[in-house]
Amino acid sequence: MKVLITLGPTQEPIDSVRYITNASSGKMGAALAKESIARNYETTIVSGPVNLRLPDKAKILPVRTAKEMIETSLNELRNNYDIFISTAAIADYSPEVQRGKIKSGIKDMRVRLIPNPKLTSRVRENFPELFIVAFKAEYDVPEEELLEFARLKLEKEDLDLVIANDIKKSGFGSDTTEVYLITKEKEVTYMPPNLKDNISMDIWKIIDKEMFSERGGFIED
Hints:
221 residues, Rossmann fold, 5 helices, 27% strand
């Protein structure tokens, strides 16, 4: 079984020395990669800039920007992968980059943001048979809204599994999290607060189950 996992943030340059980013630590993706390796799956990580030791037995492809993460993931997936797990917090927008360093003292300076493509949508367009898992993060929303946003993502992007979480409850960088898993059949599984290593094991159990039922085969634990 070949698995590709994206993790961490991206950094989107404003000028030659500044960038915008987010606080994603990459810990959830690293936990999923660790469990993937424990299951003897051939594991590749496309990693944004993280301050984190990644599993030694994984193939690591470092990237910085959303564009690099999208292009690197699509190129690597051409090497016959079975599962794609998108945990990275890829920037939804990138600034129009200005060359050099923007001078201080400018009044009312504005930065124009350009939307980035959705990686999971691009992956589905290019790899229709691939099993795709995506994360959907929201901030301080009611449970029913979180689940509805996750269902919409599942349908719109034709995904196999969406994992939803509220960042306010378990912020970026935390060692613990709580998540909801929504399958293609719209079945919802709630995983209460737990260490990300433990959550990752439970996520993989569901991935394997879905792979077996939908695609006709998987590797046993």
